[in-house]
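In pairs, describe these two lines:
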Amino acid sequence: MLPMKQTARIISTYTGDTSGVCSALFELGGMTVMHDASGCNSTYSTHDEPRWYDSDSLVFLSGLTEMDAILGNDDKLIKDVVSAAKEFSPRFVAIAGTPIPMMTGVDFQALAKRVEEETDIPSFGFATNGMHSYISGASMAFSALAERMCTRGVKRDQTLSVNLLGVTPLDFSVNGSNRSMKAWLENSGFAVRSVWAMGSSLEEIQSAGKAQVNLVVSACGLAAAKILREIFGTPYVVGTPFGHAFSAKIIRALRTAAGTGENIIACCPSENECDTAIIGESVTSLSLAAALRLEKGICCRVLCPVETSSSLLSQNCLAATDEEELIPFLRGMKWVIADPLYRPICPADADFLPLPNEAFSGRIFRESIPNLVSNFNSFEKEVKT
């Protein structure tokens, strides 16, 4: 019997693209509308958004009915969105799709254009459909911000300055990692223009073109970095600051990129044979692998179950999108570092080091998610050579 592909019969699944849009835009004063009957909003608020009960954000559900879906009643959606936008006066409007609109062929860009025409509020339409991970949705949202919301014609800062791209609680939770990254950059002599998008205002993000360099700390920020490169000529560095040695490497790369204008992928994996596997999003996992290699001489193979750029893939950074693809790569591994919900598919004789991820296990292990930016040493001690 052949195994079913792209199914999860044992492990969990990652946060969907619709929630990725909402997460990326949550703090920026906009209004996000999920075009769905009811399920996606409850999943987002319950499992995907740890900021839901502690801060305000305009996240709405369209209340799509069966007849609306069958008859294609887009005018009702537009009327409701326009009415809410006029009542709340958001900085922007975002309309994101779900599986049902995907099946009925809703044109989200056309919907957004109609809303913008009637409200004079910048509006975005995202053809998310729940079939992709949060990486896809957050990338769409950050790209839209870069294309539409960043102020053109600004002068580049004369002193070292940087934007942090790809910061959402789906990768970093709400344990202070965003603040730790900002403090680390400031202590290293960089002014932080904006953090996309935790702890920064929309005005700060609008001034992103002034920065000398961008730092991409998760795959969610890579597409926006490329757009900012096209618009403002800003180079970018890819890597998450884990561990003293690798963080120092990123600082050197940022200074080099700011001086030469060249993009740098700081988290390149080792090409040696590996007996440790890391399962997770590409940039943070590759950065963890680089930190462990520099600090402890451990070679790690990264397995990416979510979307990642082909520029990051290599012999020891592989795309494995479902459990049937993951299991063969895990055979023979001495160590596996992954969210606890991956444990059932790991070899019984491998040592398992849990590293919870908000986008995979939601709130279940939230209190155990470490801030690896400031507390890498504590995690590192758990990995034995």
